Amino acid sequence: MQKPHTPSSFTVVADFDGDPQELVRTPVPEKVPILPLRNLTIFPMVMSPIHVGRKSSLRLVKQAQKTNAIIGVFSQLRGDDENPLAEGLLPYGVAARIVKQIEMPDGEKTVIVQAFGRIRMTDLDASGSYLQGTVELVEEKFPTMDTEYMMIVENVTKRAIHLIETETTMPDEARLPVENISYGPLLVNFLSTAIPFTDNVKHDLLRTDDLRERAMKLARYIDTMQQLTDMKNRIVEQTQGDLNQQQREYFLQQQLRNIQDELGCNTSDSFTLRQQADEKRMPQKAREVFEKELEKLERLNPQSPDYNIQFNYLQTMIQMPWGICSHDNLSVTHAQRILNRDHYGMEEVKERILEHLAVHKLRGDMKSPILCLYGPPGVGKTSLGRSIADALGRKYVRASLGGLHDESEIRGHRRTYIGAMPGCIIKNLIKAGTNNPVFVLDEIDKISGQTINGDPSSALLEVLDPEQNSTFHDNFLDMDYDLSQVMFIATANDISQMPRPLLDRMELIEVSGYCTEEKVEIARKHLMPKARKNNGLEERQDITLRKAGLEYLIEHYTRESGVRGLEKQLNKLFRKTALSLEMTGIPPALVYDKETIAKVLGKEPYNREIYQGNDFAGVVTGLAWTSVGGEILFIETSLSRSKAGKLTVTGNLGDVMKESAMIALEYLRAHADMLNVDEQVFDSWNIHIHVPEGATPKDGPSAGITMATSLASALTQRKVRRNLAMTGEITLRGKVLPVGGIKEKILAAKRAGITEIIICQDNRKDIEEIPALYLKGVNFHYVNTVKDVLSYALLDERVADAIDITVPKAEDK
Q1: Which of 529, 262, 327, 306 is nearest to 417 (CA)?
Q2: What stretches of 40-80 show up as alpha helix (H) in DSSP?
Q3: Which residue in the list 109, 427, 519, 745 is annotated as catalytic?
Q4: Could you tell me what percent of the chain has a pLDDT over 70?
Q5: Among candidates 411, 403, 498, 427, which has minimal Cα distance to 463?
Q6: For residue 166, what pLDDT band results from cuts at 50, 70 and 90?
Q7: Which residues contact residue 58 at a Cβ distance below 8 angstroms, ignoring those fewer than 6 apart?
Q8: Per-residue pLDDT reduced to its tens digit, 699-712
Q9: H-helix or E-strand containing 500?
Q10: Residue of 158, 152, 174, 139 lying closest to 26 (CA atoms)
Q11: pLDDT tens digit string along 420-454?
Q12: Does residue 176 contact residue 10 with C-beta atoms inside 8 Å?
């Protein structure tokens, strides 16, 4: 039921001495200005005040009063419509003339209009400064003034007077015109205008052509309103004794609830919420909490700030996907086809998903796995989550955790705070609309640690623990929610800095970088079609890159483990192609090769052959792992005479790497005779170890054997074997220990043109697990001790311009 209109000043009756029927039959022009009214309906023959505030309405009033023109007055269907058009107005209205205008202090105007007959609008023109419409006069069917009609009018009069006496929204002065109007049709129209019926009731009365039928409807509507008024007064009497100073705040809400109970219907927020809750499959405990919180809402004043907080909480409960699960597509063949269609390689991840499907199909039900895909940027970890969702037939949601520093972003805010809301886990479940989406937790390694706002990484422990997440507790919901059906897939670049308890809860799957051959296939199957589409060249399939061109683009214009940079270069190439087509009509080339790529993209930013040779003593190539993939680095050692030998280490090295340098030096000092080096050299020469690119921080133990080889080469001035790189940790007794990131390091070595790699014997098992494609063109030399490293790495040949490493004589000191 719509809110009834209560006039701000009471309606006045027409002052007309002639036949009222002539007033209704007043001629009306075919096209008249249209004045739209909000929450007010005027009936024929009645004179009524109208508040005018809209600019277009003020212009209409000014023009109509100036020309004494007849206007059309129509009620709006919606009171909040600022610019109503034909579909926003009631088809029936009245013709009227402005009798008087009163200026108000706030700039608005009140005009008194005299209504004539009813009119129907057939067309509306909104192009002018105010609305104008094409209208036609609608006949009023006046009744015969017989005894029956007079009895109807008398009954209406008595009921109206009684309503005025009991209804608090109607002023007492309304009784005077009711008692003094003797003409029945005029009285019926006056009461239809004056009584605060709902808009729907007034529209029904105005649409009624027969005035006898209108009078009978009016009597029924007055009787209904009288019943509601009596009921309201009775409720007031019932609740009056219960009121005290604190209860006055929700007195009106109490009245509304009692009225709705009496009527057996409820259109309030609480009724709507309860209806929506009935359609949900809430667990018993959740439904009990809902009903308890709903009772609190019903006791609150809608104007209270707590009302919105309570209402938002209940809405959140209803929006939760209680018991809603999408049906998994358990076809292993289908899943394999989707995963292979969208991503090249990544066999370990794909195999894990297919294993889950196979077990799920055999068992019928099982908890979803919690995976963590880690590897360098641009290898497809995030996009793989969407492919997994497509393969399983599940919804897909993603939450970016990079830079997250507040625990409440995970667990939600308590409702005591202003602007409280659930955490990202619950919000994304609401977004997904199911209990079992594929949920990607992106960049989980970049989440902040302990801050003044709590520890977000610790908050994830409950989310990602299969034994705990069936009772995940969100602070906003303040109840347990089952996350065991959600398939969480976390992505990370570097897991070395992540908390161990968090890693322990996930199944770690490494997604390593791609070699050149794999990048060529990815570019051919995925990146080139996408880049061609992005740049409007879908129809030009003749413009392409062959394998040689792609290899040149990969090796000389990108340096990365993933393919994000390659995608950018392909887009750049096709953008320039599109520009050339637009300006000249001719592409730079149909099949791009080395020359045309260099011509379009410019100078090569990278050079594959970055290996620096073996012409200098003490310069050795090492292999390093970073969060963006593998890299090669150079260890440089120089010697200078000194009265007291000391070790200097530079290159922005971390503590672990500095310790590796000290261990390498102490080992060589202890085994100087193995290299035919005088032990006193270490006390007579300063040793300086430097790792270039000093602005880049470096740390880790894997450069141990590289530093030992660099020191040995500098002390003996012997050459290091060409095209050789190495990685491995050393101990003080010269044992070589295994290291990680082998695949990325191999890819970095291949990019740099390295053909020989020294690696720990214990890393052989890692090499054997790597596909042969990655190992092509590289020879591996497995070692157990530093002695094995030096025996292979150092040649007998000395470098040109070798330094004479001798110990000064005693008399020279």
Answers
A1: 306
A2: 55-67
A3: 745
A4: 91
A5: 411
A6: confident
A7: 52, 109
A8: 889 999 999 999 99
A9: helix 500-504
A10: 139
A11: 888 899 999 999 999 989 999 999 988 876 677 67
A12: no
Q: Which residue has the higher pLDDT, 119 or 753?
A: 119
The catalytic position among 638, 702, 710, 713 is 702
Tokens of 401: 């955790």
- Three-state DSSP state, 161: helix
> Active site includes 745?
yes
Three-state DSSP class for residue 709:
helix
528 contacts 544 by C-beta, under 8 angstroms: yes
Residue 10 has pLDDT above 70, yes or no: no
Predicted confidence at residue 244, as pLDDT, reads 55
The DSSP-derived string for 165-206 is HH-TTS-GGGHHHHHH---HHHHHHHHHHHS---HHHHHHHH
* CA–CA separation, 660 and 662 (whole Å): 5
Strand stretches in 53-177, DSSP E: 70-76, 89-103, 109-125, 132-138
Which tokens go with 390? Answer: 């497509």
Per-residue CA distances from 761 to 7, 283, 738, 739, 766 (Å):
95, 58, 8, 11, 10
Q: To which residue do tokens 């990602």 refer?
A: 464
Backbone conformation region of residue 630, classed left if phi is above 0, alpha if psi is from -120 to 50, else beta = beta
Cα–Cα dist 515/535, whole Å: 27
Would you tell me the crossing angle of helices 305-319 and 284-299 to the nearest 10 degrees?
160
537: part of which helix (H) or strand (E)? none
pLDDT beyond 80 at 334? yes
Average pLDDT over residues 221-244: 75
| Phi and psi based region of residue 264 (left: phi greater than 0; alpha: psi -120 to 50; beta: remaining) | left
Which residues lie below 8 Å from residue 617, measured CB to CB, with a gap of 6+?
713, 714, 716, 717, 718, 719, 798, 799, 802, 803
Nearest alpha-carbon partner for 575 in 554, 601, 596, 595: 601
Tell me whether residue 55 is one of the annotated catalytic residues: no
The amino acid sitting at 120 is R
Whole-angstrom CA distances from 95 to 87, 113, 136, 345, 779 are 19, 10, 10, 78, 99
HEC letters along 449-472? CCECCECHHHHHHHHCCCCCHHHE
First to last CA, the chain: 109
Mind listing the pLDDT tens digit for each residue in 300-333?
Answer: 777 777 888 888 889 888 999 988 888 888 888 8
Q: Report the C-alpha gap between 754 and 763 in whole angstroms.
A: 18
Q: Dig out the tokens for 96 from the structure.
A: 């009227």
